[in-house]
Each structure stands twice: as structure tokens, then as C-alpha cells.
Amino acid sequence: MSTQPLTRSELARLASDLRLVCMRISRRVRYESDRELTPSQFSVLARLDGQPRTNRELADIERVSAPSMTRTTAGLVAGGYVDRTDDPADGRQVILSLTPVGRKALGRVRRQRDAWMLERFQGLSPEELDILTRARDVLATVANE
After folding, report:
1. Closest to 112 in 3D by CA, of 24, 21, 29, 49
2. What is this structure's pTM?
3. Poorest-pLDDT segment among 17-21, 30-34, 65-69, 106-110
């Protein structure tokens, strides 16, 4: 492994390559590990895990329009994954929270996604797994900046 610093061009290429690989992995794990929930529905359930929220809060977090989030949460309510209650502080708002069905679905999909990744790691060498372990830590730092 080279100890020379990367040139600006090499760093740009690495950034592009890693972005594309991360996007492909993310897409594959979202679409191949679950058929019960859409990726946006799963994301909403994950955002509700541990904290009830309004449609507006969810829309802001997910960076989608309020009407789009309302459609997504309406489907989750209809499926029994999410409960709606009136906001005691603002009668125009509803508070959304996970139901026991939603909590079970969230856990099930998380386990499926982890199993999908684990299956792909089975044939890797100890050296490759060590690289992934170190990369995980670096990428977590990058993601939190």
C-alpha cells in the first residue's frame, strides 16, 4: 500500500468511486432484502423508532414534501404499522407512532438486511474483512461530518 498522499485528481476519483459503490450497496440492500415495505416506508418506521413525530417533522427529516410524506404515512396507518393520535398542543397536527406490528416489521426488515450483507461477507478473506472493519470506522467519520 502506498504511503504517498493522493493527488487532488486521485482523491476526486476515490470520492466518486466510493460514492457510487455506497449507493449501489444501499440500493441493493433496500430492494433485495424486503418485499413487505417500500424503502420510503421502512425509512419512516425507522424514524419513528423511539420517538413519535408529526408528518411535517418526518417530511423535513426525509427531505420530501409534506403531501408525499402524508401519502407514505397514510399507507403505513392503513397497514397497521403506524398509529395516529391528535396532537394535544395543536389540533391541526397528528402525532405518528409505531404500533407493535410496525415495530415487529422494522425488526424483521433490519434482520433481513443484515442477513443480506452477512451472506456477501461469507466468502471474504480475513484481510478483506479487516479492510472492511477499518473502512467502516473511516466511513462513519465521513458520514458524521
Report:
1. 29
2. 0.78
3. 30-34
Confidence of residue 87 (pLDDT cuts 50, 70, 90): confident
Residue 134 burial class via C-beta count within 10 angstroms: exposed 0-12, middle 13-18, buried 19 and up: exposed
23 Rama class: left (phi>0) / alpha (psi -120 to 50) / beta: alpha
CATH fold group of domain 33-144? Arc Repressor Mutant, subunit A (1.10.10)
End-to-end CA distance of the chain: 26
Confidence of residue 49 (pLDDT cuts 50, 70, 90): very high
What does the DSSP 8-state code read for residue 97? E
Residue 24: how many CA atoms within 13 Å on its side-chain side? Answer: 6
Residue 33: pLDDT band (50, 70, 90) is: low
* Cα–chain center distance at 29: 10
Q: Which amino acid is at 2?
A: S
* Cα angle 20, 63, 82; round to 5: 110
C-alpha cell recorded at residue 126: 480475513
